[in-house]
Each structure stands twice: as structure tokens, then as C-alpha cells.
Amino acid sequence: MDQSWYAILKSEFTKLYFKKLKQFLVEENISNTIYPPMEQIYSWSRFTPFDQVKVVVLGQDPYHDVGQAHGLSFSVLPPTKPPGSLKNIYKQICQDIPGFATPTSGDLSRVAELGVLWLNTSLTVRAHKAGSHSKKGWESFTAEVLRKVLARQDHPGVVFMAWGLPAQKTCDSLGVDEHLVLKSAHPSPLSAHKGFLGNEHFRKANEWLEAKYGPGSGINWKVLNTKSN
């Protein structure tokens, strides 16, 4: 975990719920494959240090198939092709951001480095079994991550992208005030046509960030188009 996050979250690691979660993961790892790999569970913290968060994109579960999850919600590393949800995210960015071209890679770390926190509410999952690590303690931990973001006093605010009912309930439970909360259907191919496609969230986020932080302060989503990605 990045030091900036560890410094504000270290008290969580000694709480009973986290000790139980840790023991569960130790036992789970003996008999099952867990995604993402252990060394990547907190990669979101390393790509987006605490004091650089401008946008939070809430996911629910890590991808649960081979070669997918690497610690950032919705993101996959090459050579894995972008899953359906990410393809729809790219479609919406294309609509919202002039000059954005659909990337061939699903690696979102380049925009994570610009302040987009790609955070799942549950940070691990058993291989091929969606939701298998929910209600084991991760939700308490990631809720505290979000509380820390909300409590920061040294910035004008943060954009929360809450796609789908679980993400929206998480935002509602935290009482997100004085920030921008963008809600819509989930980008999954099963629901994207019910309100995700056409939601203009990426345009709205950048307009809000520029109004709050100043001209040029929006997220440069076009870094995902570079050949290194």
C-alpha cells in the first residue's frame, strides 16, 4: 500500500473485522485461487496517492477470470482484451471527450496516475465465483477509504461516478455532500443501454473539475490512447 494511504488507514488493520478478513484470506488462499494476486490488491493506492484523488470510480467486485483483475476497478492488463463493461466505458468517453480514440488495451493505470481512483468495494474474489468475498470485511475497509477522501480539507471536491445500484447505495450511505455524484446504470453489456450509454459522465466530470480547480484541471482521458498503453 502506498504510504500516503497507509498513514491514514493503519488503524483499520488492528480492528477485529480486518483481523477476521485477513484470516479468511489466508485460509481461502490455501484451497482456492484469489484475484487479483496478493501483491496487486492495493495497487489502486500506489497509482493514485491519497492527496491526488480527483475522481472516484466505484466498482463492486474484481474480475474473477484468469489474467483480468490487477487491483483497479474495470481495468485489465495486456494481453487481456477489454471486457464488455470497459468497452462501454470507452464508448462513453469517445462521446464525451473530443479526440479520444478507443484504446486496444484495457489498462487504466495511466488515468489512475492523473487522479482517478478505480476502487472496488470488495478488493478480492475467488476465481470464477463473483461476489464470493463480499460481506467478509472489505466493504467496511473501502467505506473508510471513501470517508478519508470525503474528509480531506485541502481540495475543492471530488467527483464520484456511481454506476449501478450497489455503487449508488454506497455513496448514499456515506452522505456525499459538497462533491459531485454522477449516477447511472452500470456499464455492463446487460444494463449499459438502460442509462449508462449517453450519461455524459466524463464530460460532466471534467466541466465540474475545471470549475472547481481551474482551467485545464480536468482528467486527460486521451492518455489512454498513447502507444505505451
Automatic annotation (TrEMBL):
It comes from Macrolepiota fuliginosa MF-IS2. One of its GO terms (molecular function) is uracil DNA N-glycosylase activity. The active site is at 61 (proton acceptor). Keywords: DNA damage, DNA repair, Hydrolase, Mitochondrion, Nucleus. Gene3D superfamilies: Uracil-DNA glycosylase-like domain (3.40.470.10). InterPro entries: UDG_fam1 (IPR002043), Ura-DNA_Glyclase_AS (IPR018085), Uracil-DNA_glycosylase-like (IPR005122), Uracil-DNA_glycosylase-like_sf (IPR036895). Belongs to the uracil-DNA glycosylase (UDG) superfamily. UNG family. Excises uracil residues from the DNA which can arise as a result of misincorporation of dUMP residues by DNA polymerase or due to deamination of cytosine. One of its GO terms (cellular component) is mitochondrion. One of its GO terms (biological process) is base-excision repair, AP site formation via deaminated base removal. Coiled coil: none annotated. It comes from the Eukaryota. NCBIfam families: PRK05254.1-1, PRK05254.1-2, PRK05254.1-5, ung. This is Uracil-DNA glycosylase.
